[in-house]
Amino acid sequence: KMAAGDAVGRYRGTVGRSKDPSGLLISVIRTLSTSDDVEDRENEKGRLEEAYEKCDRDLDELIVQHYTELTTAIRTYQSITERITSSRNKIKQVKENLLSCKMLLHCKRDELRKLWIEGIEHKHVLNLLDEIENIKQVPQKLEQCMASKRYLNATDMLVSAVDSLEGPLLQVEGLSDLRLELHSKKMNLHLVLIDELHRHLYIKSTNRVGQRGKDRARLG
């Protein structure tokens, strides 16, 4: 028993000095291989076996003494391991879901860009339709302005309508008749304005000069 205790103490001391358990094994192998005496090797082997048996008995005693704590630790370790495994699986699933969402967002982005472009096109078409409706009402409004001698309003309205028909609405074939009509009205308006200027500059002015001459004659 004393020899076994010495062997255990010696091997434990070797383990305590060496952090690497393989160092103890290498030391034992070196001792067994360098010894020429068979009896010494057998004694060394016996002491080593006794030391390992003593360690096993000590370990069994410690397990019996701390069975409750050991069981609790094992169960806790198992629970923690299961939670870690579950968390890893959830993280993997979340990553897969994020990748799927990213792909869907890319697809939705293309669809939204397409819808946005279509919305701009529809808005432009609606603006053109509103402009066409307004231009179709120009002849009637023009007649009203001419009847009330609002020549400035009539001129602005006619010039704006002709510019639209010659610009953004040039490719609209259904407005060709209206385009010709407004060009004709533009020429007529031009003649009407010349007549009005002639009347104001010559006829009215002459009448005023004549009236002033008569007034002076009466006063004289």
From TrEMBL:
Q: List the GO terms this entry assigns under cellular component, sorted alphabetically.
A: exocyst; growth cone membrane; synapse
Region: Disordered; residue ranges are 1-21
Domain spans labelled Exocyst complex component Sec8 N-terminal: 46-144
* Annotated coiled-coil segments of the chain: 38-97
Q: Which domain of life is it from?
A: Eukaryota
Q: Name one Pfam family in it.
A: Sec8_N
Q: Which UniProt keywords are listed?
A: Coiled coil, Exocytosis, Protein transport, Transport
Is Membrane among this UniProt entry's keywords?
Answer: no
Which InterPro entries did the record assign?
Sec8/EXOC4, Sec8_exocyst_N
GO terms for biological process, alphabetical: chemical synaptic transmission; Golgi to plasma membrane transport; protein targeting to membrane; protein transport; vesicle docking involved in exocytosis; vesicle tethering involved in exocytosis
The record's function comment reads: Component of the exocyst complex involved in the docking of exocytic vesicles with fusion sites on the plasma membrane.
Q: Which family does it belong to?
A: Belongs to the SEC8 family.
Q: What is this protein called?
A: Exocyst complex component Sec8
Organism of origin is Tichodroma muraria
